Amino acid sequence: MYNLELEKVIAKIKETNAKTVCVQLPDGMKPHANIVEETISKETGARVFIWLGSNFGACDVPLGLNRLHIDLLISWGHNKFQKEEGW
Amino acid sequence: METLFLEAPYDKNIKLCTETLNYIKNKKYTKVALYASVQFCNNLQKVEEQLKKIGITIISSKPKRTQCQKQLLGCDCYKDSLNLTEEVDCYFYIGDGRFHPLALVYSQKDTKKVKEVICDNPIAKTMSVLTLDDITRNLKRYKGSLIKFMSAKSIGIIITIKPGQEQYKPASKLEKMYIHKKFYYFIDNTLSFDQLENFPFIDMWINTACPRIGFDDHELFRKSVLNLHDALQADAILRKESFFK
After folding, report:
1. ipTM of this model?
2. Distance from CA of B70 to the nearest CA of A (A)
3. Cβ separation of A78 and B7 shorter than 8 Å?
4. What are the φ/ψ torsions at residue A74 (nearest 5 degrees)?
5. How far apart are CA B16 and CA B32, in angstroms?
């Protein structure tokens, strides 16, 4: 019903040569994380980490993934957030 | 590290159900503001055709934190974030769930008359209507927070580090506006509600994270909570002709 757009995911991983990928899904899509993980692993060979935590919006991306040497974060259900004046 | 956002678009046809069309015709609306969540907002051609066919003028906007016209975020719960300049008869929302369209009701909280939000769910093919009644309970509590803020002396400002939140600078304006109040700044990522009670010297909280926390999650705060947007103009809000007066 909601399109996972896995072809875009595969293309992006190949384009960036990402070896480690973190996937972040909204709650409604979390039950399909296995499909996402298996497809990415099979098609690209990248190690896939599934973000366990929240996905409230594009403002809610996991922080600190660089410390785990994640090459690419793929976040479903939102588009880029236009930042306002902040810190 | 690069980030790829995927909108997960709804991949079936989006059109209004009969119930929605009949409702809007009976109401004799002529001008509506149309919004949708990101899964639906790029595929509204059929919906627009249906509305135009029954004589409805469609108005919309690109809310300030979104990427495209007609896209609505849950945090678009203030009129200024919607960027909607024209007056309309009602709001129209395409999508599932209540979280996003309730933002349109909250966005009218400081106005004299709250216009209804007609929601069409293309998945369930059902219609629902949201009105002031759906947020009255939360707004009653929120009014208490506004009043409390005027007299509170010791105030905790919650600043979160999620990208796009990070509202320290805007929050620090409060110190200049209210020189007799003492402000303490707290930093968190996802708000740890269970930690709030460890700071008993705080009279009330100012929320600078998602503004829906201030409206929808007030029961998770043991003390009053007010969104920064409203704290910056608390006095004016309480004087205005609206729910809060």
Report:
1. 0.85
2. 13
3. yes
4. -115, 120
5. 14
The model carries a pTM of: 0.91
A85 in B contact zone (CB under 8 Å): yes
- How does pLDDT run across B71-104, given as a tens digit for each residue? 999 999 999 999 999 999 999 999 999 999 999 9
At B96-143, the pLDDT tens digits run 999 999 999 999 999 989 999 999 999 999 999 999 999 999 999 999
Q: Provide the token pair at B85.
A: 């300049």
B68–A12: do the CB atoms touch at under 8 Å? Answer: no
Q: Report which of A43, A51, A42, A44 is spatially closest to residue A70, judged by C-alpha positions.
A: A51
Q: Let me know: does B71 contact B101? Beta carbons within 8 Å.
A: no
Nearest-CB residue to B163 (from A2, A4, A61): A61
Region of B110 (left: φ > 0; alpha: ψ -120 to 50; beta: rest) is alpha
